[in-house]
Amino acid sequence: MKTLFVKEHEAPRSWFVIDATDKSIGRIAAKAAYMLRGKHKVTYAPNQETGDYIVIINAKKAVLTGTKTEDKLYYHYTGFVGGLRSVNYAKLLERHPADPILLAIKGMLPKGRLGRKLITNVKVYADDVHPHAAQNPKPVEV
User: Fold this and answer.
1) pTM: predicted TM-score of the whole model, two decimal places
2) What is the CATH number of domain 13-64+98-140?
3) Which residues are bridge partners to 73 per DSSP?
């Protein structure tokens, strides 16, 4: 039996939309990362980009359980001495509503070239309006 390899540019790619209203950020991110990698397809290969495109709408309406809205911190380093910065979830959501979901998905993707390539296939929007209606995205339940 021969292993079938599909060329990345010949792989069939679909568009899916996920509504994040009242859904847990972790569950949304896990489903999105799974579909971005292409693990739901028979043509999955861990070293290829054969996944689908994901559009996430209503990102600001996603929820966290417990007291994570006040306690969860996001860190980034500026590159300078003593430049470790942190912001909690509530302030990040206020300033950039799409970032918490995007960062959660990014953490679930492989590190390196492939992960950087895959993260460009996810589009996150704070409201229910998105410019990808022409692609006819199919709704996905989380």
Assistant:
1) 0.94
2) 3.90.1180.10
3) 88
